[in-house]
Amino acid sequence: xxxxxxxxxxxxxxxxxxxxxxxxxxxxxxxxxxxxxxxxxxxxxxxxxxxxxxxxxxxxxxxxxxxxxxxxxxxxxxxxxxxxxxxxxxxxxxxxxxxxxxxxxxxxxxxxxxxxxxxxxxxxxxxxxxxxxxxxxxxxxxxxxxxxxxxxxxxxxxxxxxxxxxxxxxxxx
Length: 173
Known about the structure:
Helices cover about 30% and strands about 30% of the residues. The chain is of the alpha+beta class.
């Protein structure tokens, strides 16, 4: 099995987004049952792709796309905007290989942050037990994410508001 990470090419972007959306949808439905709504709208992926300092990475095994990540690095601060492994490729340590590549690719980034929905037990396990992150904050209707503070959609207990924020300080493993 030959694993490699490559910068996302423009011609692969559509499939990258679809694969990411399918992986997130599968994870949510595996936990919550069939859902009528889309868990990860394309606009959320586009927002991350268009952030200043963003890089999209495609994970390949034997030349076949198996996952990817979107990182945003500004000096010593790194944000893991998204990391996914295609649902039919999970359980093969691909996520760990993606994360190890990211850490090695950005040695200047000493602090990393990411978020994941509260119901994604596999992600929580992955970030804490496999990658060395710490859960540092729990967003909910009473403690909203900074980007949501000015928004009031009328739904004060939406399932979409429950997220864990993780942080990893490199060198403190």
